[in-house]
Structure formats: C-alpha cells, structure tokens
Design brief:
This protein is α/β, with parallel strands linked by helices and about 280 residues long. Helix content is about 45%, strand content about 15%. The structure holds adenosine-5'-diphosphate and magnesium ion.
Length: about 280
C-alpha cells in the first residue's frame, strides 16, 4: 500500500462509526438478466411508495447503463469520484432518489488502483448514514468488486432468469461467496418468468443444488414476470413502475420492497465500510 492510500484508509477508519443505511447488493452470474431494471424499479418504489431515502450506486463499471434507464447525463459519474471528487458533486437526483452513475471505459474493474478504491470508500462513508437504503447495481459475474461489495452487504440479491445458463452462473456466484467467505445472506429474484409456476420451479432447482452441495438455504425474494411493458416503458423513457403501476412486474417489485422494508434489520455487527476496508486493504 502506498503512503497516500495508507493515510486515506486510516482516515476512513477513524471516521467510520458503523452507522449505515442498509446496503443491498444486486448481482447476477450472467449479464442481460434484467438486474438493472430490477434495481432501478426497486429504488423507485422504496423512495416513492415507501418514502425511504435511497442511494443507487451503479457499480457496473465498464458497462454502466443506469443512466439510459433513468435518462440522466452520463458525465457526472463514479470515475471522478474515484479520482477524489466529493460525492456531493457526483450524485444526481432521479425520481426522488439519489444516483451515482457508473461509467464505461475500463474493461476490467479489477484494474482499479488501491487509491481509487480508498477514494470510493471515503466518499461513501461520508454519505452512507444519510440513507435508509443503498442499492448496488454490480457488474455481472465474479470479480474483486462484486465479491467485495456483496460480502460486505447486509443482503445480496441474486438475479437470474429461468434460463439454464443464467441459473448455472447464479449457482457459481453463490458457491464462490459461500466457499470463500462463508457468506450466505442471499435472496433470489427470478426475472422474466413466463408464469409463477416457472418462477417457483426455477427457484426450487437453484435451492436444491445450493442445499445439497453447500448445505445452505436460499430465500426467494420474488418472481418477476416477463412483460412487454418493460420495453414500452423503456421507449417512453419512463420507469415501468411509474408508467404501469398495476402491471404484474410493478406489483411484484412492490411486494419485494414490502418484504425488504417490513423485515427486522439484522445488520452485521460491523459497518459496511469497515467490512470493505477489511476486504480491500487488510486481506480478510
Ligand atoms: N421482466 C422483464 N420482462 C421483459 N423484458 C425484460 C424484463 N427484465 C428485463 N428485460 C429486458 O432485458 C434487457 C436487459 O435488462 P437489464 O436490466 O439491462 O439487464 P442486466 O442489468 O442484468 O444486464 C432489457 O433491455 C429489457 O428489455
Ligand atoms: Mg445492468
């Protein structure tokens, strides 16, 4: 660790009081399963229906596309934050919640330097207590960041479709996080289900493997149906949950938000930022 990084990490540790909004990490084994759609819809619903203070962080560096769904300017983004710009200057407002956009340009998020990671953590620490929920839209698959963020998050939502390859990749993600770190706070969202039944059967299949080979249980957060309205909303540049609140997609998102907010918070003893420091800088 360079000197500058060391002193930044020291500073973050001094500031960090373990007072967090609840961090929910959204991952998928495979891209294109509808993760960004679900994260933005949940952010919208938590903010507008449940009146929660929400920050959505687009961690899908390399392929960040949250701005497209929200119609925001991609200029203010995580990149300047990594270079040390205060987070207040990077946060944008969409539909009553706050957003930090990702950016494209580096292929491998693993290429982030320690200094950039430290800057990110420092800026997050400064605002994390202002929110009820922090939603992380991660890039697909396993990398240092999807693992680090998910391991530190209170809950990791694994999004998959019924498609066998998506399911296999979802299993691989869960397996890695569990085998490497004993992490098991997973909730599963089945997206693009053609019927409730197909959704439940898909979950059962995943649950069965995870149960048999890892010995842990999964929680089904929701079965989100396939709907033509998704694309229509996208064309109209409106969130589906706002444009079609009674579409089964929106209704299921509301149910997931309801389950999330109605739950007793079972926060780990240490704060999110402290757990990130351990992962990124202290090799734990
Ligand atoms: N429930 C759904 N019904 C219909 N189409 C969907 C649904 N969820 C996602 N999609 C489609 O899948 C595409 C990919 O979704 P996106 O959220 O960008 O996936 P990811 O973030 O996992 O890569 C979207 O353009 C959208 O048209
Ligand atoms: Mg995405």
């Amino acid at each position: 660790m360079g000197n500058q990084v060391e002193s930044l990490v020291k500073l973050i540790k001094q500031r960090e009081r373990g007072v967090n909004g609840k961090v929910l990490s959204f991952v998928s084994g495979k891209g294109g399963v509808g993760k960004t759609g679900i994260v933005t819809s949940l952010a919208y619903t938590l903010a507008n229906t449940f009146k929660k203070k929400v920050l959505l962080l687009d961690c899908d560096i390399g392929l960040g596309n949250v701005h497209l769904l929200l119609g925001l300017s991609p200029d203010k983004n995580l990149k300047s934050l990594l270079k040390g710009t205060p987070i207040e200057k990077v946060i944008q407002r969409a539909y009553n919640y706050d957003v930090v956009l990702g950016f494209s340009g580096i292929d491998e998020i693993d290429e982030l330097e320690n200094l950039e990671t430290a800057n990110l953590l420092l800026q997050l620490e400064r605002v994390i207590k202002n929110y009820d929920y922090i939603l992380l839209d991660n890039s697909a698959g396993l990398n240092r960041y999807t693992i680090g963020f998910s391991r530190a998050a209170a809950t990791t939502y694994v999004v998959t479709t019924p498609e066998p390859t998506a399911l296999t990749d979802a299993y691989a993600f869960i397996k890695s996080l569990y085998k490497l770190y004993g992490y098991s706070n997973f909730k599963v969202v089945i997206n693009m289900a053609r019927s409730r039944r197909e959704g439940f059967e898909t979950f059962e299949r995943l649950q069965l493997s995870v149960n048999r080979f890892l010995g842990i249980d999964l929680t089904l957060a929701g079965v989100v149906p396939y709907t033509e309205r998704f694309r229509e909303a996208l064309r109209g540049r409106m969130p589906i949950v706002e444009l079609y609140p009674s579409d089964p997609y929106s209704v299921e998102i509301k149910r997931i938000a309801q389950l999330e907010t109605g739950q007793l918070l079972k926060e780990p003893k240490e704060g999110f930022i402290r757990r990130l420091i351990k992962f990124f800088f202290e090799g734990e």
